[in-house]
């Protein structure tokens, strides 16, 4: 088990430390392609930058496995005369997270320029200002430059994408922390599952999608192209098993195994996992001895929501990796949960057959 977790940690570290703000996923896509080359029957990149890898089975039934490669970040919005750089958020940031972070600005030629996020000094704040969170639009990045010209000479311009500078490290036991676990943890689980899948009946399409954090965009077009019969999305979900959250409000628990999402989004934008596919996942977990949790997420959704509505409809379920502090630089999860997620996908893939489909969903075209 130790070796397996060490290997998963290495993969997760390579993926999470790569730059991959929504729409600017080139670096992380490179890591993904390196991992899949030589393992898949084919690896393609579509017009929106999605990676689509295929492992052929007997043909006839197409299973789509999806995780997203993009992470929330920023774009450079404005550079002032003294060389301070202002940011526009991409995706769902909580403002207090950002002050005091070290960031990386990616230039057009792929270099990373480092900076720190500063604000007006606290001792210059009026008492009532001190009580409040400094809004993101007042924060600025200091890259050490003294003029706009100097910033521009380093290759930074309005629109340059920005992520957080954060190493991924191991904590006590099997816990890890870093940025972009959302959803590189899902990507790591699916890459390791994809490598292990063998002798399955279904054609397995692994979609590593772009632009999830800005409206589930990559998965939408990738799923159209694949035209799957069955879909499974793997993403992180809120583990609010921390002080200040009541047990009854808990969505999932770190270390309790993958969370099978019964429903998320609480509205027309979410996904109700297909009951028959949810049952397949539950049966799989029980038979394979994999611990799982059932969860209902009150807000937010995943690529599963758009995969389900592809073409004439796709029975879809979401498998989630319980994660604390989502959308922060200190996202935290359990490597063992990650390993169980990967194994659950491998075992479930064996059970997604034409016979299962025809008995549970309908005739296969
Ligand atoms: Co997210
Ligand atoms: Zn996500």
Q: Can you give me a brief rundown of this structure?
A:
This protein has 365 residues and is of the alpha+beta class.
By DSSP (H or I, 4+ residues per run), the number of helices equals 10
Series of H and E elements: HHEEEEEEEHEHEEEHEHEEHEHEEHH
Tell me the helix content.
25-40%
Uncertain spans? none
Structural class: alpha+beta
Q: Which small-molecule ligands are present, each listed once? A: cobalt (II) ion, zinc ion
Summarize model confidence as the mean pLDDT: 96
**Rg computed from alpha carbons, rounded to a whole number of angstroms:** 21 Å
Number of strands: 17
Strand order of the largest sheet: 1-2-12-3-13-16-14-15
CATH C-level label of the largest domain: Alpha Beta
Count of all domains? 2
Morphology call:
globular
What does this structure look like?
This protein has 365 residues and is of the alpha+beta class. It contains 10 helices and 17 strands. An 8-stranded mixed sheet has the order 1-2-12-3-13-16-14-15, with helices on both faces. A 6-stranded antiparallel β-barrel has the order 4-5-8-7-6-9. The longest helix has 17 residues. The radius of gyration is 21 Å and the shape is globular. It binds cobalt (II) ion and zinc ion (ZN). The site of cobalt (II) ion has 3 residues, from loops.
């Amino acid at each position: 088990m130790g070796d397996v977790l060490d290997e998963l940690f290495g993969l997760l570290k390579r993926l999470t430390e790569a730059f991959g703000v929504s729409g600017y996923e080139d670096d992380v896509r490179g890591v993904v392609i390196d991992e899949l080359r030589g393992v898949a029957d084919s690896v393609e990149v579509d017009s929106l930058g999605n990676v689509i890898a295929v492992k052929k089975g007997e043909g006839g039934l197409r299973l789509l496995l999806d995780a997203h490669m993009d992470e929330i970040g920023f774009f450079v919005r404005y550079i002032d005369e003294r060389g301070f750089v202002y940011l526009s958020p991409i995706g769902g940031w909580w403002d207090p997270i950002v002050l005091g972070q070290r960031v990386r600005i990616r230039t057009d030629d792929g270099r990373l320029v480092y900076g720190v996020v500063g604000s007006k000094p606290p001792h210059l704040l009026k008492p009532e200002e001190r009580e409040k969170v400094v809004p993101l639009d007042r924060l600025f990045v200091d890259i050490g430059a003294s003029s706009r010209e100097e910033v521009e000479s380093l290759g930074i311009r309005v629109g340059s994408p920005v992520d957080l500078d954060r190493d991924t490290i191991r904590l006590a036991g099997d816990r890890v922390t870093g940025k972009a676990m959302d959803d590189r943890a899902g990507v790591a689980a699916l890459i390791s599952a994809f490598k292990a899948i063998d002798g399955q009946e279904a054609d397995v399409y692994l979609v590593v999608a772009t632009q999830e954090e800005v409206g589930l965009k990559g998965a939408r077009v990738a799923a159209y192209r694949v035209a799957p019969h069955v879909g499974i999305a793997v993403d992180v979900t809120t583990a609010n098993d921390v002080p200040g959250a009541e047990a009854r409000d808990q969505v999932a628990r770190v270390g309790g195994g993958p969370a099978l999402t019964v429903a998320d989004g609480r509205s027309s934008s979410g996904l109700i996992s297909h009951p028959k596919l949810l049952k397949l996942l539950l049966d799989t977990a029980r038979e394979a001895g994999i611990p799982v949790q059932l969860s209902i997420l009150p807000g937010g959704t995943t690529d599963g929501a758009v995969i389900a509505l592809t073409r004439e409809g796709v029975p879809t379920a979401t498998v989630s990796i319980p994660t604390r502090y989502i959308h922060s630089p200190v996202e935290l999860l359990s490597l063992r949960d990650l390993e169980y997620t990967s194994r659950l996908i491998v075992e479930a893939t064996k059970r997604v057959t034409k016979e299962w489909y025809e008995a549970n969903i309908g005739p296969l075209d």
